[in-house]
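Input (structure):
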C-alpha cells in the first residue's frame, strides 16, 4: 500500500483501525474494529481484536490479542505455530499434549485476553 504499512501476504485491516504507516503486517493477520497499531509494530500470523492497542515497536507473532487489550512499547508477544503447513498437500493437524513428561506446560499459541494492559 503506497504510503501505508508494509503488507505481506493475507492481511485484513478493519476500516476503522488506525495503523501506523511504519508498521509491518503479515502474513495471515487480522486487525479488528478500532484497533490502534503504533509505529514500527511487527505482526505476523496473529489476530488483533477490536479496540486493542499495540504500542510503538512491539512484536506480536502467532497470537490473539483480545478486545481492548494494550501491548506495551518494545514488548514481544509470541506463541508457537502449531497449524499444519498449508503448502503440504498431506499435512494434518496433530493432537498435541498440554504438558511434557516433567509436567512443564508445552508452549502453544498465546492469547492475551480482553482489557489486559
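Output (sequence):
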Amino acid at each position: 500500500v503506497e504510503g501505508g504499512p508494509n503488507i505481506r501476504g493475507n492481511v485484513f485491516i478493519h476500516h476503522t483501525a488506525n495503523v501506523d504507516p511504519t508498521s509491518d503486517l503479515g502474513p495471515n493477520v487480522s486487525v479488528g474494529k478500532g484497533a490502534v497499531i503504533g509505529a514500527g509494530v511487527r505482526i505476523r500470523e496473529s489476530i488483533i481484536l477490536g479496540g486493542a492497542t499495540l504500542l510503538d515497536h512491539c512484536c506480536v507473532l502467532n497470537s490473539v490479542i483480545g478486545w481492548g487489550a494494550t501491548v506495551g512499547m518494545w514488548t514481544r508477544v509470541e506463541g508457537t505455530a502449531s497449524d499444519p503447513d498449508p503448502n503440504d498437500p498431506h499435512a494434518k493437524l496433530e493432537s498435541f499434549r498440554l504438558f511434557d513428561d516433567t509436567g512443564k506446560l508445552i508452549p502453544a499459541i498465546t492469547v492475551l485476553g480482553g482489557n489486559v494492559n
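Notes: The CA atoms of residues 98 and 106 lie 6 Å apart. The chain has no helices and 14 strands.
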